[in-house]
Amino acid sequence: MAIDTKLITKLRELTGAGVGDCKAALSEANDDMDKAVEVLRKKGAVKASKKLAERTASQGIIESYIHANGRVGVLIEVHCETDFVALNQDFKTLVHDLAMQVAGANPLYIKPEDVPAEVIAKEKEIYQEQLKTEGKPENIWERIITGKVDKYYQEVCLLKQPFIKEDKLTVEELINNHIAKIGEKIEVTRFCRYQI
After folding, report:
1. Average pLDDT of 154-162?
2. Domains delineated in the chain
3. Which residue in 148, 71, 47, 157 sits closest to 106, CA to CA?
4. What distance in Å separates the CA atoms of residue 5 and residue 10, rounded to the nearest whole number?
5. What is the pLDDT of residues 69-127, one digit of tens each?
6. Is residue 187 within 8 Å of 81, Cβ to Cβ?
């Protein structure tokens, strides 16, 4: 069965996968675009984050979330490329989930690059003192400190946190899954969390 080249082109734009991968996925999915995207995701051929890195996300929505007890509230701004996607239910659900994540996990930053250098320097200093107190040999300090800094990022950076609804996924992986599904760049630009 011959695959329509327009479908291959559209699937490539959505996923960033190669022509051969797209052709095989469409064949396996009987030309069903959603199933083809799923096939590519399962095979790991989706390169959405790389493909979309240079695109501009200038549309989006601001979502608010108030926790049931009324003592925690969140505002979050998430961008996408088009207003069409900003109105899409999948995108809105993602943004709502991200607002709930901020309410529940209380991140301080969006990504590791946002953490000020002096904060990381202070954390490393604390870890070094801990290792010295514990009597760990100096030749392994660097490796241990690197691991502790990575753990720190998982606690304070939204994108590195385990997703509260499915902790096998990080928030970054959750967003990348939506990028692959929707076919547009998605980025969290800022958030604010209030707590009484």
Report:
1. 96
2. 5-46 (1.10.8.10), 52-110+157-195 (3.30.479.20), 116-155 (1.10.286)
3. 157
4. 9
5. 899 999 999 999 988 888 989 999 999 999 999 999 999 999 999 999 999 999 999 99
6. no
